[in-house]
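FAQ: What does the model actually see?

It sees only this:
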Amino acid sequence: MTVHTRVKERAEEQATTMNGDQQAAIRALANDLHRLNHSVMRAVEAGVSVELVRSARHHGGDGQWGDLMIPVVVTRAG
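And it is asked to produce this:
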């Protein structure tokens, strides 16, 4: 099953006004999110439900912030 999540395309669209370091960080994030999405799909196909929940918010000190996530995994009994 192939699912197109548009992570890379969305990141590139949003990175047009960023400097080089910011663009590199967003490209790395997009790549990691793409792998994460595929891992979530594999887990679901293996029979578990996965919810990503914000566990904390990281603040950069100059007004920037980012959500830190943890997985909540539910399996069916039986």
